[in-house]
Amino acid sequence: MRLRSITPGIAALAILFASVPAPAPAQVSIGIGVSVGFAPPAIPVYTQPPCPAANYIWTPGYWAYGDAGYYWVPGTWVAAPQVGYLWTPGYWSYGSSGYAFVAGYWGPQVGFYGGVNYGAGYYGNGYVGGSWSGNSFRYNTAVTNVNRTVIHNTYVNRTVIANRNGSRVAYNGGRGGLTAKPTAADERAAGEHHIAMLASQRENQQYAAQNRQYLAKVNNGHPPDAAVSRPLTATNRPPSFQAVRPSDRSSASTARAGKNASAEKAAAQTKATQDREAATRQQEVQRQQQAAKAQAAQREQAQHQAAARQQQASAARQQEATAARQSAAHQQQAAAARQQQQAAARRQSAPHQQAMPHQSMPVQHQAAPAERPPAAGPHDERH
């Protein structure tokens, strides 16, 4: 969010005529506001006056800022600008330029108001003091003060009381501030049609700024008449009304200068701390980057070495395969040579084997048993 600083002389008018432009990411609905170097007081505890008429909506009190410093704008009942519309309170938000007021608005849904517990149904998120039912507003008397002799459209829901925020801190962000963030429902509410604060609300704030009793430095954070049944006007002033004095403005200017100086000093110290932390983070990032580079280099070297080993192993396997092929070729050649030698030997021995039966026939015949010669006779003896 961008905060626009406004001179003290027109600070009240800056808040008084706040508008509601387009939503911003961190703060849903941003109005033109004053930037202050120190936070507003806590939200006071006060009694809500009874609702004066049907379809009136409670608009809680809040701290505004003017020439004389922080002052309280009393909570009051306001007629809704149209049926179905609800009030989203404004709130103070801390940013780079200090504390800025974010203007409230009317809309179909209650949007983000910083998580501030304003009481009376505004417990930091949404509104549980009542709801619209057709053209009539129904009041939850568990948290809303209603005169039932005048208003009969009521109900009781006590479960919402247990969910309220117990803190009374009046600002979001910064040291000691609330940490609430817009919900999805808040974001949707921010995109709906809005109506800025009504003339009666602006008049209520204008006359609150004129009452010295509403100044935080006078009431010490506990304003009298913290809530009124109807908005303040020239004729509707609280009994405790006292006009703001010129000395109040001058003392506020002096105090503001001192607090702004302190705030600037604190901001400078914070910035120095943030710069040191940023430098430390940057050094850590550089260290991590260097470590990552070294690890990457080591991984790359290991990958190269592994690839070289794989190449060497592949070359060795190729050599082994080549040697195996050569050995197989030699074996095939030797086998072929042996086959050739055997074939030649068979060819050379074949004629000799064919001649051997003719030479052995007489041998076989001679070897056959001979017939015994006849016994010698007389004729043989003569012969």
List keywords for this structure.
383 residues; alpha+beta; four-stranded mixed sheet; three-stranded mixed sheet; 6 helices; 16 strands; 40% helix; 15% strand; elongated; disordered N terminus
Overall description:
The chain has 6 helices and 16 strands. Residues about 1-30 have low confidence and may be disordered. The protein is α+β, with helices and mostly antiparallel strands and about 375 residues long. The longest helix has about 120 residues, at about 245-365. The chain folds into 2 domains: about 10-245, no CATH class; about 245-340. A hairpin with a 2-residue loop joins strand 10 (about 115-120) and strand 11. Helices cover about 40% and strands about 15% of the residues. The N and C termini lie far apart (about 165 Å). The strands form 6 sheets. It has a 4-stranded mixed beta sheet. The protein has a 3-stranded mixed beta sheet with strand order 2-5-16, with no helix packed on it.
